[in-house]
Design goal:
The protein is 37% helix and 28% strand. The mean pLDDT is 91. α1 crosses α3. The protein is α/β, with parallel strands linked by helices and 266 residues long.
Length: 266
């Protein structure tokens, strides 16, 4: 009997973790494992205790008539600090400093293991905002945004800087950059529905023009913005084109040296 429960717990935990933020019927699970709904509910409590202890997430139970549970990826403050401090230390290597005060980080965000951790950490900032879709811009914004969308249980839509026939019909918006230029970004009309709720994520922000462009795109679709999240935000300039945003790391430059710190939780 004990072996049967251990196997069931492992299979249940795997099912919930492979479908984050998706409601799973407890009745269906009880039928699948040939046990009562009460037994499944007890199992969910065990899984919740384990995930909470690890600081990785928590189980959310719907006590309604149908009954269901979902795994919500939520990083605790301790786990968030641990993950981001390690990445900040790696990115603070002087060899990563590029001309123009930029930091080389492509090798990290295109590492699936690191991108997964960053995506879940980013999603934790917006738990409860209930977006219908995550929006990002090509190319380096995609890995973190993809895993954040996965954690939130919603699709990802990508704004491109060149319209491709394979995207079908698209909407384009023109937006100003910090140096006075005007750029254009496009998104396929099939990626966003009018009047939806969007979460805007990007990999880097200096003046915020790209994020502002995505805000304009959301406006074109009459979408409500659930929030704006950034992987690395430069502390200069102080005034951004985006009024409100949340970032994981803050980049500052002092005496010609770049310094990355974990952004304080707000």
């Amino acid at each position: 009997m004990r072996g049967q429960r251990t196997e069931r717990l492992v299979r249940l935990a795997s099912k919930f973790m492979l479908s984050p933020s998706k409601l799973v019927s407890l009745t269906d699970l009880a039928t699948k494992f040939n046990v009562s709904k009460t037994v499944i509910s007890d199992d969910v409590e065990v899984i919740n205790s384990a995930m909470t202890a690890e600081g990785f997430g928590q189980m959310q139970v719907d006590r309604g008539r149908s009954g269901g549970a979902r795994f919500i990826p939520i990083c605790t403050s301790e786990r968030r600090q641990q993950v981001l401090s390690s990445i900040a230390e790696s990115l603070s290597d002087p060899d990563r400093l590029l001309p123009g005060g930029l930091i080389y980080y492509s090798d990290l965000i295109f590492n699936p293991e690191i991108a997964l951790s960053l995506g879940y950490t980013m999603a934790s900032l917006f738990t409860g905002t209930n977006p219908d879709v995550v929006i990002t811009s090509e190319v380096k914004g995609i890995p973190i945004a993809m895993f954040a969308a996965y954690a939130l249980g919603v699709p990802l839509a990508v704004c491109r800087f060149r319209n491709r026939p394979s995207d079908g019909s698209a909407v384009g918006v023109h937006y100003p950059t910090s140096n006075g230029d005007v750029k254009t970004m496009y998104i396929g009309t099939r990626q966003l529905r009018r009047g939806g709720r969007v979460l805007i994520l990007d990999d880097f922000m200096r003046g915020g023009s790209t994020a502002a462009g995505m805000l304009l795109m959301a406006k074109q679709f009459e979408a409500k913005v659930a929030g704006v999240g950034i992987f690395i935000a430069s502390d200069e300039p102080k005034e951004k084109a985006v009024p409100e945003y949340k970032s994981l790391l803050t980049l500052s430059e002092r005496n010609g040296k770049a310094r990355l710190t974990v952004t304080s939780e707000k």
